[in-house]
Amino acid sequence: MPDDTSKRPVIRLISLTILVLLAGWAGYLWLTITAGPGEFSSATFLNVGQGDSELIETVHGRQVLVDGGPGDQVLQELGEVMGSMDRSLDMVILTHPHDDHVGGLIPVLERYAVDYVVESDQSAETSAIMKKWNQAVADEGAEVVFPQTGLSIDLGDGVTLSFYVPKVDADYEESANHRSLVIQVQEEGECRVLLTGDIDIANEEELIASGLPLSCDVLKAAHHGSKYANTQVFLDAVQPSAVVIPVGAANRYGHPDPGVLDRFSSLPIYRTDLHGRVTVQLSEPVDIGVQGD
To answer: Which part of the chain is the Metallo-beta-lactamase domain (predicted)?
Structure first.
């Protein structure tokens, strides 16, 4: 693994404080960092083909990677966004254990120094890819956090990650999609980006019934724009100003579904297969840029 000397010069980790308070379904994880300044905090949807991968960066250099896509394309994307000399990530989050989300995280753990891994409890998972993932996490030595609904991670600079963990019932025991972590990327208490993993219609109904505030500036279309999610009632609950669809070109699943695209038609739609990398500026007013801008 790379040592601390491989970090880019403008980022210097001065202090790291963790405070975890769990009460029932609520929790709080506090991270403190002093580092070199950037222009603004952002969430970047990386172009990793038919998969999901998002890099969250704060003004003062906190870096969190959510999912890694299906292969090692994420390494090239991270190199272009973070710089080739930066070989550290503060946190890696796995929303659920499917190849198109976890596959790229394994080479990420092999190349980058990672302090924390956040993942849902997938202790029953015995797939080959999850065995590789679990071994990579163990080899990395990162601290592992299993979030519960209500966990909030403060990244500094007004940016927090708020988690919702779907309930698991007998009908969906075998569905990893149904267990996807849902993450609100908030800035100054306002939801800027809603990351939905591969949740399905039942999850969307569960989220609405939970009474949690869902309104958010930018919605990541669930499951690459699948027809088994992205309902009109969920769209009405979130009320996004724009939609981002991470998806591979000419994929065999037919994502995004034409009916879902029609549902989104009144909104600006950004697709990684058409636009490449998509970056959302988290500060007000929220701004969205695409690769090549």
So the answer is: 50-248
